[in-house]
Design goal:
Layout: H1 6-11, E1 36-44, E2 53-58, E3 61-66, E4 76-79, E5 89-91, E6 100-102, E7 122-127, E8 131-134, E9 140-143, E10 148-151, H2 167-175, E11 209-210, E12 222-223
Domain Large ribosomal subunit protein uL2 C-terminal: 84-216
Protein name: 50S ribosomal protein L2
Keywords: Ribonucleoprotein, Ribosomal protein
Length: 230
């Protein structure tokens, strides 16, 4: 009997593939309260994230948010107000068109789901019954006007300018997110380990396209492709 595929092992969520959440600083959710004000106490690096985090003090309550480009220690940030400034958190219906935002809620009160990568931002295109936002991919997406977002661009936009230079540094960077930096090809495995394995030289040995309804152990190669690839 053949062994389980790598995708099957990852799907079970074993310790080898589980994200090391014990190293993470915080989940980084927008504050649950509707209105308030706080002060940025520190800017820290967070394992498992591409952007730094801002440590904000809300009247004795410490909260962690994605650091915004241009903010600094000692700066005041507001929640729920109508003032539009970098780092402030408010509803989409309070933000004018053309403003750069990030950490957008998918539904009101969910804490923020979209645009959280370092250096990323979305732009408000129009407002009506729904707020139309142009995402970093260029796609226009509609949101509930009561959804909240953070004004500004996520800090750490220049992280890709400096090369990693060493394979070990790339390994440690991806390890903090439980992601491997090397993958063994299926054709390089034995037949017991992968459907593409075996043979005297690395070749698939048959069709490498699988139907959508195939069993998990058969899903290797192209899954339900729209066109044939050679």
């Amino acid at each position: 009997m053949g062994k389980r595929l790598r995708a099957q092992r990852r799907g079970t969520g074993g310790s080898q593939y589980r994200s090391p959440s014990h190293r993470h600083v915080d989940d980084v959710r927008l504050p649950a309260f509707a209105e308030g004000a706080g002060t940025i106490k520190d800017l820290i690096q967070a394992p498992g994230r591409t952007s730094p985090l801002a440590v904000i003090d809300f009247n004795g309550v410490t909260d962690y948010q994605l650091a915004v480009a241009g903010t600094k220690v000692g700066q005041e940030v507001s929640v729920g107000g109508s003032k539009i400034a970098a780092g402030n958190i408010t509803s989409l219906n309070n933000i004018p068109e053309g403003t750069s935002i990030h950490n957008i809620e998918a539904k009101p009160g969910d804490g923020g789901k979209f645009v959280k990568t370092a250096g990323s931002s979305a732009t408000i295109v129009s407002r009506g019954e729904k707020v139309v936002i142009m995402m970093p991919s260029g796609v226009n997406k509609e949101f509930n006007p009561n959804c909240r977002a953070v004004v500004g661009v996520v800090a750490g936009g220049g992280r890709g300018d400096k090369p990693l230079a060493k394979a070990g540094k790339n390994y440690l960077t991806l390890r903090s997110r439980s992601t491997a930096n090397k993958w063994v090809k299926g054709v390089a495995m034995n037949a017991v380990d992968h459907p593409h394995g075996g043979g005297s030289h690395p070749h698939v040995g048959g069709p490498n396209c699988q139907r959508r309804t195939a069993s998990p152990g058969q899903k290797a190669g192209f899954i339900a492709p729209k066109k044939k690839r050679k």
